[in-house]
Amino acid sequence: MSTTTVHLVRHGEVRNPERILYGRLPGYRLTERGEQMAALVGDHLAAADVALVRSSPLLRAQQTAAPIAAPHGLEVTADQRLIESGNRFEGQRMGHGDARLSDPRNWRWFLDPFRPSWGEPYREQVARVVSAVQDAREQAEGREAVLVLHQLPIWVTRRSAEGKPLWHDPRRRQCGLCSVTSLRFVGPHLAGVDYAEPAAALYDGAVDATGGRLT
């Protein structure tokens, strides 16, 4: 049976001076450092036998995908299944204003961290990403495919692939900016998961999706 690898790439650092949870909001683009991160992951995958590159429709993912596709002469195709997870508090600063955990009006949104009750259920995220992965695996059979998307959908998909509970501590996610989570298949069967951080040298001082420092 042929061996196929599907790489799940997280986008680079995003310009977010308001430090809000931007989620699916349009127009959020990479910082200059984020563009450098994208170039590094493009270099990392330049020698790979990449047959297709697909991306979340959000700008930051599209920008990250471009330098990955370019060395292979490929176009980036948008795939709605790769979009960021939905979140009740999108557009707000967590812990501030209307997004405060101390506000009793918000307590109903935090009742079930296993689902989670404040956003798109983990199982729904896994289902849509796995569907995109399987389509990419079939179309790139015997070669490699790259899907550029977002931290949480990547992380819960990896946990599902490894047979782990989807609920987790967000502080312990192994999914850095422009990281590469690689799903290796033999035929249709998952044979292993690998992880790399080609842009790690640029992490010092970088910020995550809510404006918090990574280091």
From TrEMBL:
Gene Ontology molecular function: any one: phosphatase activity
Gene Ontology CC terms, in alphabetical order: cytoplasm
Top-level division of the source organism's lineage: Bacteria
Alphabetized Pfam families for the sequence: His_Phos_1
InterPro entries, per database record: His_Pase_superF_clade-1, His_PPase_superfam, PGM_Phosphatase
Protein name, per record: Histidine phosphatase family protein
Organism: Brachybacterium saurashtrense
